[in-house]
Fold this sequence. Notes:
Blueprint: E1 13-14, E2 24-29, E3 34-39, E4 45-46, E5 60-64, E6 69-73, E7 80-85, E8 91-102, E9 104-115, E10 121-134, E11 137-141, E12 146-148, E13 153-161, E14 166-171, E15 190-193, E16 209-211, E17 216-220
Parallel strand pairs: 1-2
Antiparallel strand pairs: 2-3, 3-4, 5-17, 6-14, 7-13, 7-15, 8-11, 8-12, 8-14, 8-17, 9-10, 9-13, 15-16
Amino acid sequence: MSLHVRSLLRLFNTSSHPLGSAVGDMWWRNDLSQAHGSDGGATPIVLGPTGNLPVVRSTGWHSVPPAGSSSAITPVLNRAYALPVWPGKSCNLTGVAAEVTLLGVGNLRSGLYADNGASVPGTLIADFGTVATGLAGVKTWTPTPVALRPVLHWLVLVQQGIINVGLRARDTWDPLVSETSSSLSGNRTAYFADGVSGTLPASFGSVSGTTQGPSAIVQLT
């Protein structure tokens, strides 16, 4: 007869470093929504994600992608570009902005998707609606605040209209966007799906590919 024993470890909530000697322990930071651990050293080991926005400045605007030199792209009409957003702690998304560099006729739509657990966009969290492209300049969405956990999300931008516009982008490769081959050419900042001519679908669906997408800036509080 074999006996199977399952050990369970409960992590109690705490909003500060537990008092006590520097010994191996684990705890949950409910103010950051992160699991931490310690191997006895002075610096705790962060078991939860720190992400590409490790510090959220309240009401500040955070660039997506977070790095890269400024450039511009001509988006494909009705192509949904999904940009990874991974905040380092629990926060609220209260604003989204993108920059039109070349005027066109139509609208820009923005929204947010959850990750599907395999590091690609999954189900729709919120469709922020459209803003008119019009003249060149920054276009802003002010959605009802969306609570973000410190996990991977996907911000979507899609141009819907008649005439292509130019959109601000960044010359970089986002490490959270992976290729299907070993090609090193081009900048890869977004996954994309085509044929999004109206409201955002409830599921992002199958990823069509990777490409250099537009850049955005998100307000987190």
